UniProtKB/TrEMBL annotation:
Entry protein name: cyclic-guanylate-specific phosphodiesterase
Residues of the EAL domain: 23-281
Top-level taxon: Bacteria
Residues represented out of the complete protein: 534 to 814 of 817
Length: 281
């Protein structure tokens, strides 16, 4: 029995090694990728659900690896969070976004604000406010050119620091949205104290409204509750992951003013943004 146990243990560590190995390999590759400029941003519009007018753009990072092709942020962002590499990548994402906004402004394109996602770990950096203001001033931008998105779970951790940072951003005119709302069981009493401009309904709720909202009464009820909550707290409500007209109609019917999703546009490279904004070719 003793030797069997040992063999099991051995097997277990081998598997663990393989998983660890893969993560280390990915982590190494990310660091090289940054040096080689393999990260870039794509932009997805946030629209007025009724008119379809573009109100802002959300910047989403993309990694094109020379051999592996596109690596999904769903795969490398969580790892970058764990290893701390996000503290190197995050500022680069913010810099690229601000530089791009500057380019659009310099070319006289009637731009809309650009929202950048900050991971929990970035948002908890003690100098996050100074970093954001620094990125704005380096690129010669105004506070209203940039928006920030933090996830509900990030917003709900370290309460005092979150409120302090959000208040600083709010005072300077940088709008913040709470992303993936509905997934982290926020205390409503706490939520009402956060100076945020918008809450984004997590796309998991919206995705079940694809065919027949009546067939998913729980998700429909959660969506309606979040819309009501936003109205009560004076926050804009943005629905994510809208892929078809059924979802759009359901959301409009229940008073959701804004949304994002493939129905309006996939995230597109910077060069295609002018077309989305209806300027140029
Ligand atoms: P998120 O911030 O909730 O972003 C929304 C995700 O939904 C994006 O995936 C977007 O491409 C996708 N999406 C948009 N419309 C639709 C739709 O109609 N249907 C479906 N099925 N999906 C849609 P993406 O770009 O793969 O990003 C995944 C997550 O990775 C993001 O979720 C965010 O948490 C993280 N992420 C992406 N870019 C960044 C970044 O620059 N910084 C940080 N910290 N995180 C990022
Ligand atoms: Ca987001
Ligand atoms: Ca989201
Ligand atoms: Ca998400």
């Amino acid at each position: 029995a003793k030797s069997e146990g040992r063999r099991c243990y051995h097997f277990y560590t081998q598997e663990l090694d393989a998983a660890l190995q893969e993560r280390m390999e990915l982590d190494q590759a990310m660091r090289h990728a940054l040096e080689r400029g393999e990260f870039h941003l794509v932009y997805q519009p946030r629209v007025d659900l009724i008119s379809g007018r573009v109100l802002s753009l959300e910047a989403l990072v993309r990694w094109r690896h020379p051999v592996w092709g596109m690596v999904s942020p769903g795969r490398f962002i969580p790892l970058a969070e764990q290893t701390g590499f996000i503290l190197t990548l995050g500022p680069e994402i913010l810099r690229q976004a601000c530089e791009q906004i500057h380019i659009w402004k310099a070319r006289g394109i009637p731009t809309v604000p650009v929202a950048v996602n900050l991971s929990a770990r970035e948002f908890r950096q003690p100098d996050v406010f100074e970093r954001i203001m620094g990125a704005l001033s380096t690129a010669g931008l105004e506070a209203s050119d940039l928006e920030i998105e933090i996830t509900e779970s990030a917003a709900m951790s370290s309460v005092d620091q979150t409120i302090r940072t959000l208040t600083q951003l709010n005072d300077r005119g940088v709008c913040v949205s709470i992303d993936d709302f509905g997934t982290a069981y926020s205390s409503l009493n706490y939520l009402k104290r956060l100076p945020v401009h918008a809450i984004k309904i997590d796309q998991s709720f919206v995705s079940d409204m694809r065919e027949d909202p009546a067939a998913h009464p729980e998700d429909a009820a959660i969506i309606r509750a979040i819309i009501g909550l936003g109205q009560t707290l004076g926050m804009t409500v943005i629905a994510e992951g809208i892929e078809n007209q059924v979802q759009r109609d359901f959301l409009i019917e229940h008073g959701c003013p804004q949304g994002q999703g493939y129905l309006f546009s996939r995230p597109v490279p910077a060069g295609e943004v002018e077309r989305l904004l209806g300027v140029g070719g």
